[in-house]
Amino acid sequence: MTVGPQDTIGSRSQMRRGAIVQLTLLALVIGGITTAVAVIPNWLPPAASEQADRIHFVFWYVTIICIVIYAIVLAVLVYSGWKFRVAPDDDSDGPPTHGHTGMEIAWTAIPFALVTSMAVISAVVLARNDRTGDNPVRVDVTAQQFAWTFKYPDNNDLTSNVLRLPIDRPARFTLRALDVLHSFWVPEFSQKQDAVPGTTTHVTVTPNKLGTFPIICTELCGLGHAVMRSTVIVMSKAGFEKWAKQGSQAGGGGGGGGGAAAGKAVFANNGCGACHTLKAAASTGTVGPDLDKLPDYAKQAGQPLDQFVRESIVKPDAYVEKGYPPNVMPPTFASLPKAQLDALVQFLVDSSKGA
Ligand code: CUA
């Protein structure tokens, strides 16, 4: 487009105003479509922790900036292609242009300010997300092919394969891996941390919604990686205290009259019922052998019942019952604290004899 001497200042500024209106409309349409793509599908899992709320804030802050920049750039691109396209036979060059100092300052200063603000906000969120407060729930997480174990050192080393956390109180996780790399992830908490053999890693989560959420291993760790899952139950503070107190008494108490209840609690906490049938625990799992038949199995293995039960928990593949595949029961339970293991063995021996 060339500007002839006959053009008046008035018509030129009118043209410019028209271009700005058209560009703005284009940018609004593009921004609207992009915003719909960002907002309508559920890209993120619902947040269930304070850390997740902060991370989602950073996510949306950056996304909004991206949408605005994308809309402006794409509007100029589309407008230019539409208005200034050359005619098929036009081989002429465009008019020479000079730099525009004002624009150069603007397109340097604005991105600098935006990127700096993202860095500052991210740094603040990272620092806050690592704060544990004065009284965190400490949880030792052990990852191994292919199971998670959670131990509460402040509750007599209470051990569970299902994670339980109180609401609105920071939980400080210390992660260890016994064999290869694993990664601890609860999508609703937005926090993810690797478990690395030979060292410990840490992560903090402050759950702020009651409910049950999945725990997922997100580091390819072998054949069972896809099934290396567990569950986190976020409980009321009182409910958690009650559970932890009962569980830690089960772990620490040892023999005495509470033995059966203690063993039953260990059975429930470690999710044994998901795979095994046991009348005394009202469980009906069929993945592994029927535990009401333990005395028969012990006879077939030629071992005293209590010795057989203990060996089957600690070294599950030493004797594999006919009709069940080997290497299915996780070897995790070998790391149960001794008092809990004793209580579990006693419970299984007593209840299978009674069956
Ligand atoms: Cu453990 Cu994947």
Task: Please explain how this structure is put together.
It is a single chain. The chain has 355 residues and is of the alpha+beta class. 44% of the residues lie in helices and 17% in strands. The chain has 8 helices and 12 strands. The protein has helices at residues 9-39, 50-83, 101-129, 237-253, 259-269, 294-301, 305-314, 338-354; strands spanning 137-144, 147-152, 158-160, 163-166, 171-177, 182-186, 191-195, 201-205, 211-217, 229-235, 277-278, 283-284. The strands form 3 sheets. The chain has a 5-stranded mixed beta sheet with strand order 3-2-1-5-8. A 5-stranded mixed beta sheet has the order 4-10-9-6-7, with helices on one face. A two-stranded antiparallel sheet has the order 11-12. Helix 1 runs antiparallel to helix 2 and helix 7 crosses helix 8. It is elongated, with a radius of gyration of 32 Å. The protein binds dinuclear copper ion (CUA).
Could you write a compact summary of the structure shown?
The protein is of the alpha+beta class and 355 residues long.
Strand order of the largest sheet: 3-2-1-5-8
The helix content, as a percent range, equals 40-55%
Number of strands: 12
The class by helix and strand makeup works out as alpha+beta
How far is the N terminus from the C terminus? 95 Å
Radius of gyration: 32 Å
Q: What average pLDDT do the residues reach?
A: 87
Number of helices: 8
Order of helices and strands: HHHEEEEEEEEEEHHEEHHH
Please summarize the sheet with the most strands. Answer: 5 strands, mixed
Range of strand content: 15-25%
Catalogue the ligands.
dinuclear copper ion
